[in-house]
Structures are given as structure tokens and as C-alpha cells.
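Many introductory courses stop at the sequence. We go one step further.
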Amino acid sequence: MRKPRLESTLRVIGFFILPITVLCFLLFLLCAMIGQAILAGIAVAVAIYFIRGAPHLIRVLDNDFVNVSSRYEEGRAFIQRGGLRYKSIIGVVNFTMPFATLRATKEAIIISVSTFGLFPRTFSFPRSSVRRLRWRRIFFSLGIQVEHDLSSCPSYIIFWVSNRKALIQGLRDFGYEVSDT
């Protein structure tokens, strides 16, 4: 299924930026600024790609890469993809959607994260260690903060969601309640 609205928006953007990027490319060539000319050439290629309707980008979007999904494993688990934010020794670490996965079972909540298979991390919270699940908003993002008493996991961890209703229902089905405060 094609995404005609997104495709036409990308084409308009391409038509808008193409003349600007071509002028920049020519100006940088005339001034012998090779590095900037290469970057402007790449921008020209991106504009042409957008004018063509960005077929590869549309195909990725059609394959549900960006859409965050949730699913049930009947009676065993609820699984939802999303994003993750947690504190580590180096500071606050953020992973955007859909690189994190929350898995809720009757025994535990398991949050795993990996970017294209690199730097995988898994945080497991047995039911007995989960003190509270609550909604947290940071800027424009809304997520579930897991408050727990484990020293082996970050004290501050938020799972970002886009389908709030599905997550609430999935957690309830396995005996977890989410508070608003």
C-alpha cells in the first residue's frame, strides 16, 4: 500500500530545495570550495530522490518499520515496541522508537534495547521488584517509568510508547497497574 500523502509531501519538498541546492553547488564549485560542493551535490541528489517520490523510504514505511506495534502471545506475554531512556554511568541514554521492546509476563517485565543488533541491553524486573509503573512526560514524549528496587538495573528507566491504550491493557492483562502520577 503506497502512502500518497507522504509521497506528494516529499515531492513538494524536493521541488522546493532543488533550485537552492543546485545554486549552492554551482557557487561552491566556482569558489573552489570542494568540501562544500560535495555536500551540496549530496543535497541535490536528495532533492532529486524526493522528487521521484522517495520509493525506498516509502517501502520502508509500508513495511511497518516506523509504526510501533504491540502483540499478545496468548496467555504468555504482551509485547510492545517503543523507545527507551535510562540513566547510565555516562549519563542519560536515549533510544528512539522502535529500537526498544517491552515484554510483560505474569512473572516479570523485561525491557530490551538494541540498534540494528549493536550494543544490546536487557533489563529484567521481576514482579516482586516493581514498586510502581507510572506515566511520565518529558517534552513531547510520554512513557512508562518503571520504579523498582533492583541495584543491577538503572534507577531511572522510561519506556516510550505511541499506543498508550494497548500498553495499559496489555499490562493489566498480566496484573500490572499504571498510575497517572
